[in-house]
Design goal:
Helix content is 59%, strand content 22%. The protein is α+β, with helices and mostly antiparallel strands. The chain has 2 domains: 87 residues, S16 Ribosomal Protein, Chain: A; 48 residues. It has a 5-stranded mixed β-sheet with strand order 4-3-2-1-5. Helix 1 packs across helix 3 and helix 3 runs antiparallel to helix 4. The mean pLDDT is 85.
């Protein structure tokens, strides 16, 4: 059985992964059949390079991707293409569905970025509020101190 999996490369604390088609009985970083792509999680955003035709070929022959590789392929839309081709869709339908998926992904990314900005602004406002309340608390403590001395 063939699996699409990650093969670790790179230096210590600077990993780079190769996406490979390997026999399921092979060791994790052992022998592989073909390199299908590369994944660099340390860059921001993570850089993914995939040979689409080879990845689709291996998926069509029954290769099972690991969970991480499945997520990477899903973010690139290759799992959608593979699913549609297994269902028997023609090239025109696949390209139409993929373009529709891409437009939805753009709007999804925009919503996520907007949400991040809102959270950042909320956190910034929350950080400013305690500074204001600490300035007013000593005044509130002064009457209590006067009562104790009287």
């Amino acid at each position: 059985m063939v699996k699409l999996r990650l093969r670790r490369m790179g230096r210590k604390k600077a990993p780079i992964y190769k996406i490979v088609a390997a026999d399921s009985r092979a060791r994790r970083d052992g022998r592989f059949i073909e390199a299908v792509g590369q994944y660099d999680p340390s860059s921001n955003p993570a850089k993914v390079e995939i040979l689409e035709d080879r990845a689709l070929y291996w998926l069509s022959t029954g290769a099972q991707p690991t969970v991480t590789v499945r997520n990477i392929l899903s973010h690139k839309g290759l799992m959608l293409k593979s699913h549609l081709s297994k269902k028997g869709a023609d090239g025109n339908k696949i390209s139409a569905e993929f373009s529709k998926w891409e437009s939805l992904q753009e709007s999804k990314l925009q919503r996520i970025n907007d949400k991040k900005l809102r959270r950042k602004e909320k956190k910034k406002k929350a950080a400013e509020k305690p500074a204001e309340t600490t300035a007013t608390t000593p005044a509130a403590e002064q009457p209590a101190a006067e009562e104790q001395s009287a």
